[in-house]
Amino acid sequence: TKITEKINDPDKLTLYINRYMDAMTKNIMLSEGTVDKFMGDAIMAYWNAPYDVENHADKALTSAIEQVKLLDEINVQNHKDKMPLIKIRIGLNTGPAFVGEVGGELRSDYTIMGKAVNHTAVLEQVGKFYNADIIISQSVKDNLEKEYTMLLIDIMQVDGTSDAFNIYQVFDVGAPDEFVLDEINNFEKAIHLYQKAQFDDAILIFRNLILKEDLLNKKLCEIYIERCEINSIAVHGGEFNPVQSINKSIISGS
After folding, report:
1. pLDDT category of residue 161 using cuts at 50, 70 and 90
2. According to the model, what pLDDT value does residue 238 have?
3. Looking at the structure, do residues 95 and 195 belong to the same domain, yes or no?
4. pLDDT for res 163
5. What's the per-residue H, E or C state across the chain?
6. What is the per-residue pLDDT for 40?
7. Do 66 and 185 belong to one domain?
8. Domains identified in the chain, total number
9. Is the per-residue pLDDT at 33 higher than 60?
């Protein structure tokens, strides 16, 4: 909606949207993914159906990483054309789902549904809150064969469900170099301290991290510093639940 308000010319708007959709769709299909549907300027896709796809978690994640890089090239052209730059967020999850034909006699779609699909949508939505381009669930991480540069960011629970699972921000294919690995280790050490309600120790690490230039995710540091400050006052030796309930305010990015 915001894009259509900025680009009033229908031909320019069509070119703008199709340039993005074409590049992303080709990438998904070349990685053996299935494009399910377009929802405004969003793309819903899945792997491992209707046919089995070997190493489908790796292929989906590699495609997501490539899409983020492709977007940089697309935005160079958008800048030249004086068009708005595009920002995307990608959520990846894996699990049991219904895949099949849904609809009526006059109109039907071959689509995918289920709790795993719903959780995937939430992973995409919370990317704004965590300032993360790509977020994956623990189930995706458990199914990966390749190495990736990734960072544990939280334990997530969707409102209205009992499921809680780790979520990760993914940056690139391949193991991180020693400097990035050291930063990731410090991030995750601080997060684990926070989860154990050791707020003073955790906040020291986060405050040291936030001083670094080119930090992997500065906003994540800010989120945890605020959480540590609030909980160190509120908990007072009582029970602490580190699971982050995903509610409307987090989904909206506030």
Report:
1. confident
2. 66
3. no
4. 87
5. CHHHHHCCCHHHHHHHHHHHHHHHHHHHHHCCCEEEEEECCEEEEECCCCCCCCCHHHHHHHHHHHHHHHHHHHHHHHHHCCCCCCCCCEEECCCCCEEEEEECCCCEEEEEECHHHHHHHHHHHCHHHHCCCEEEEHHHHHCCCCCEEEEEEEEEEECCCCCEEEEEEEEEECCCCHHHHHHHHHHHHHHHHHHCCCHHHHHHHHHHHCCCCCCCCHHHHHHHHHHHHHHHHHCCCCCCCCCEEECHHHHCCC
6. 83
7. no
8. 2
9. yes
pLDDT of 160:
80
Tens-digit pLDDT profile for residues 102-111: 999 899 999 9
Domain limit, last residue, from 174, 200, 232: 174
Q: Which of 128, 146, 174 is the last residue of a domain?
A: 174
194: containing domain: 176-249
The model's confidence at residue 254, banded by pLDDT at 50, 70 and 90, is: low
| CB distance 150 to 174 below 8 Å | no
